[in-house]
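The protein record filed here.
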Amino acid sequence: MRFRKRSHNSYTDEELIARYKETEDPEWVGYLFDRYAQLVFLVSMKYLKDTAESEDAAMQVFEKLLFDLKRYEVRIFKGWLHMVVRNHCLMLLEQRKRKHRQVEEIKYESDVMETHSEFDLMSEPSEEEITLLRMQKALEQLNDQQRYCLDLFYLQKKSYQEVADISGFTLKQVKSYIQNGKRNLKIMLSENNPDA
């Protein structure tokens, strides 16, 4: 009696992830990616509004999956993937904004230097700008799990259970990551830590 080889389409998302973790063969993630490529592209288009950038973002997400699927326990892949794509696109938009700001600042400084010989016309950053910069720097220093859970809980207003469902972490892990993330942020932003 001959047995037919099982088609990758008959595997569930969870089985494909398990096979990837067992074998570390990227082909298994490739099957997952093929299954959700259109979703990844459409979510990217929603945020980036550019076909070429969205295609690039999709490939970057695929590369990210190769790394992240080894690190995280993912229970509901589709929801988790949507969040990964969304966060990746927001990061790209932030980088785009930062580049635009830098170009504008360079143009502004150039204009100021041409029209004024004194540099003291440049104003000091406000207290609010300094606080926001320190907050952003502190968030970047948190580990991935804490940053991810804090983003879902505070910025996206998800409940503990929703964070657990999306991230694949247990409810206990979610509460721990949020609590430890808050504590670490507080330490980094304290007056005694000017480097944050």
User: Anything to note?
Assistant: DSSP finds eight helices and no strands in the chain. Residues 72 and 168 are 8 Å apart (CA to CA). Confidence is low (pLDDT under 50) at residues 116-121. The longest helix spans residues 77-115.
